[in-house]
Here is the input.
Amino acid sequence: MAVSLSKGGNVSLSKEAPGLSAITIGLGWDPRATDGQAFDLDGSVFLLNASGKVRSDSDFIFYNNKASSDGSVIHNGDNTTGAGEGDDETVEIDLSKVPADVDKIAVCVTIHEAETRSQNFGQVSKAYIRVLNKAGGAEIARYDLSEDASTDTAMIFGEIYRHGSDWKFKAVGQGYAGGLGPMAKNYGVNV
Amino acid sequence: MQTFQTGQKSPLSNLTPSTMLTLSARVTGPAAEYDLMVFGLDAEGKLSDDRYMVFFNQPRSPEGAVSMSSGARGEKTFTLDLARLPPSVRRLSLAATVDNGSFGQIDHAEITLGAGGTPLATYRVTGRDFQAQRAVMLFDVYFKDVWRVGAVGQGFNGGLEALVKHYGGEVKDTPAGHPAPLSPAPNSAPAPTPAPTISLQKITLDKQGQSTKLSLSKAGGADPIRVNLNWDRGGGLFRAGADLDLGCMYVLNSGEGGVVQALGNSFGSERLVPYIELDKDDRTGAASDGENLVIYRPDLIHTVLIFAFIYEGTSDFTRVNGRLMLKDPRGNEITVRLSNPDVRRTFCAIARIENFGGEIQITKEERYFYGHSDCDEHYGFGFRWGPGSK
Here is the structure.
């Protein structure tokens, strides 16, 4: 039974799914129903050390850098409209391969060209993040952002982080002003 | 008071503890009319009950939890009593539509959420927020764990039909040969008792062409059509009263055409061509019965365009409560409250009366112009216009 989280809530993935070694992060949103330019949401992942920064630029996994150098994180590609059943973008994380000096994995979503298209998360319907057990595909945790999404164009959807020897997932739902570039810079990426 | 941006959401309790709300909206732009409406949707965002579309033809939901009233200059105020809504209605969505033009052309639309007479939040969009949309969703009050509000600002190029489809409703094409049912003029007051149920099909039918059509077949073409223009004195202690003028442009079946109006003393005649007569020129609004125009022989006309314009004393029909009542031979009435969209367009083409082979059809126009000549240009009478005074 998947755990449905609200903003700020967290769950121990290791306890919910004993023996968990790899997860799939699913991101989804409804395609635009109204007339106008499509909502193109982009999922990005940052591998962060204990001080909350990337160790190098290759720890920033996004549509132009689809895998981390150690192979622990693989981004399965860009969906530019939100069309299609199920998750619109997925990222696979092999927790057993995540280097020991990575403390936290931030999963962020930005709206492509939000400014020129005058778009924000408040206009997007049914955005969510969910964590699946890669083995078997069972959903472990889910966070629906709908009511927490407002006028932001970049958001930290969730974080996967170490807690002792366990992995936990936190529903963050926090907006970030400025978009993907400033967000990456803030995590220490040279953009 | 909070200013909302497109996409912004908030729990209602952050704004007010009240569940008795008002949602006022007005669209300013070049179109003669922008329609405002509230859809009462279910938890899935669908219009599962037509009676919860509240608009000019149906100004009240069955239990009265949602009702609409009209203010000056096309402003509509929706009163929302959330506690009285049935549990099946979980989202109230304010929308606007336009038949001629698009929301990319509007100057702006302003929405104010209030409670107990106090404004709580405003939301403003301009033409730059849209392109070719002819129906736009503006502001939602909805229940998700708690009551919430959100500024939407998205729409559909396909107009009302596309909007209704989005809400899961279906709009069928106008069946040929069935004229639209008689509906009250949008601005008439007081609001008539709504029909117990209303189908979406009917709504769309009504709205096509943006005019209320009264088909008067076999109505005895020789019975007169009476038009009355009235307004309040206006002005103040030191100002002269406002002078509004009623008139018409006409073309008879014989091909003769002209204008009946006080300007140039063209009062017309009851017994001679054009059989259209204006009773007087009320220069101040003091006469209790205003100005009256009678078309004595509708059977002889080809087309008559009824108009009213401001000669002097005000720049705003609304300020002097300008209103026009048109009575056809059957006793049907069209009431139009005049409210020019901007101070320069003080000439209103109100109704078009046409004779189709002995059948008289009255179409509500309510289009605003700068004066006689651009109105004529729009309707194509082809009269010659020069400056005139009285």
User: Anything to note?
Assistant: The CA atoms of residues 140 and 152 of chain A lie 27 Å apart.
